[in-house]
UniProtKB/TrEMBL annotation:
It comes from the Eukaryota. It comes from Glossina austeni (Savannah tsetse fly). Pfam families: DnaJ, TM2. The chain crosses the membrane at residues 30-49, 55-72, 111-129, 141-158, 165-183, 189-205, 226-243. It is a multi-pass membrane protein. GO terms for cellular component: membrane. InterPro entries: DnaJ_domain, J_dom_sf, TM2. SUPFAM superfamilies: Chaperone J-domain. This is DnaJ homolog subfamily C member 22.
Length: 388
């Protein structure tokens, strides 16, 4: 029994060691460059390489502030791929960095990007706060959330790749620097100084090497986290447009979007649509959604049948003989050659084309129905013969 247990433990040990030492699925430099070329502004190549933070920031800034960072990656993608593959060459170079630098050395590009993203997130949070009273409430106290978003932006950039740091250092620096707003009455400079302070503290006190390989998270977990981050980001934009955005009416007056939206919900047009949707749901409850779909297709007139009958001036019960006779009669009366007035010839030509198209549509539909009916009759006859 002991020998068997030892053998089992040995086997399990080999399996565990093989799982620990197993390399991640290998990424392709070619695919990374293709994704960089066709979707790099939105960080598709970073998603492919499991650099989700990097991809999120590319989404927020359209490729590193309108493609500047995206263009700069043309030479760094191979190193990103080696990092994702845990290539021995990359690991050897990384170990040399660890031996020569206890902490990650200063990177001007990363430091500048921390300031820019911190400023972007802080400015976006500032824009999302309602400037005026909303529902008789003053939301200006929410400006104290601005340092939090500044710190979050700086921390996100600082944790890209093989470097990491804690968030609370950035938070302390941001909240310590933010009261400068009471001396500098310009939010632009206040947010910029706050972002600079958070970046300086993170760079000098917080950042360190990520010595272990990044965790390979499942697709569901990655999707959930990325979607949550994107939802928060676009929610801030939505708050900005809803509370502080305006639209211009026909008289040239600017109307806040939230007021325009409320007026729209109270309009007769929206009331009619809401009632129609409610009636459709009630009808579907009794007759099924398939009937709703059939009626929707009929109302859309996807095959042009209803419009064709309208062009020819016929009812939907008209036979093929009636359609042909009406078509020939109209061709004689509206033919462009019969119009002597040159100013009316273009209109007659357009009308003539519409009549021809209507006739072709109805003839095609009628022929298809006749073939379908014949096939049904033949199938019924064959089944009757088999029964006999």
């Amino acid at each position: 029994m002991v020998k068997n247990n030892n053998k089992t433990m040995a086997k399990n040990g080999k399996v565990m060691n093989s799982e620990v030492n197993a390399l991640p699925p290998q990424k392709s430099v070619f695919i990374a460059y293709v994704l960089w070329l066709f979707g790099g502004v939105f960080g598709l190549h970073h998603l492919y390489l499991h650099r989700d933070r990097h991809a999120f920031l590319w989404w927020c800034s359209l490729g590193g502030y309108f493609g500047i960072g995206w263009l700069g990656e043309i030479f760094t993608i191979p190193s990103y791929v080696r990092d994702a593959n845990e290539d021995p060459r990359f690991i050897e170079e990384f170990i040399k960095k660890l031996q020569s630098h206890k902490r990650p050395p200063y990177s001007g590009k990363r430091f500048l990007f921390m300031i820019m993203i911190g400023y972007l997130f802080g400015q976006l949070a500032n824009m999302a706060i309602p400037n005026d009273l909303y529902m008789a409430m003053d939301f200006s106290f929410l400006h104290w959330l601005i340092p939090f978003f500044v710190a979050l932006g700086v921390w996100t950039v600082g944790n890209i790749g093989r470097e990491r740091g804690v968030l609370w250092h950035c938070l302390l620096a941001a909240f310590a620097a933010y009261p400068i707003r009471y001396f500098i009455y310009d939010e632009t400079y206040t947010i910029l100084i706050t972002s600079l302070a958070a970046a300086l503290v993170f760079d000098h006190a917080s950042k360190e090497w990520l010595r272990t390989p990044p965790k390979r998270r499942g697709i569901c977990e990655r999707f959930f986290k990325f979607s949550t981050a994107m939802f928060i980001y676009f929610s801030l934009w939505g708050c900005f447009f809803y509370f502080n955005g305006t639209i211009t009416d026909e008289n040239g007056n600017e109307v806040p979007i939230h007021e325009a939206f409320q007026n729209f919900l109270a309009s007769a047009w929206w009331t009619d649509i809401k009632q129609a949707l409610k009636d459709m749901y009630t009808y579907a409850q009794h007759h099924g959604w398939y009937e709703i779909w059939k009626e929707l297709l009929e109302s859309m007139d996807v095959d042009g049948e209803r419009n064709a009958y309208k062009v020819l001036g016929l009812s939907a019960t008209a036979s093929q003989t009636e359609i042909t006779a009406t078509y020939r009669k109209l061709c004689k009366t509206i033919h462009p050659d019969t119009v002597k007035d040159e100013s009316q010839r273009a209109t007659a030509q357009q009308r003539f084309i519409e009549v021809q198209q209507a006739y072709e549509i109805l003839s095609k539909i009628k022929s298809a129905r006749i073939r379908k009916n014949k096939k049904v009759v033949n199938d019924d006859n064959e089944s009757d013969t088999i029964v006999l």
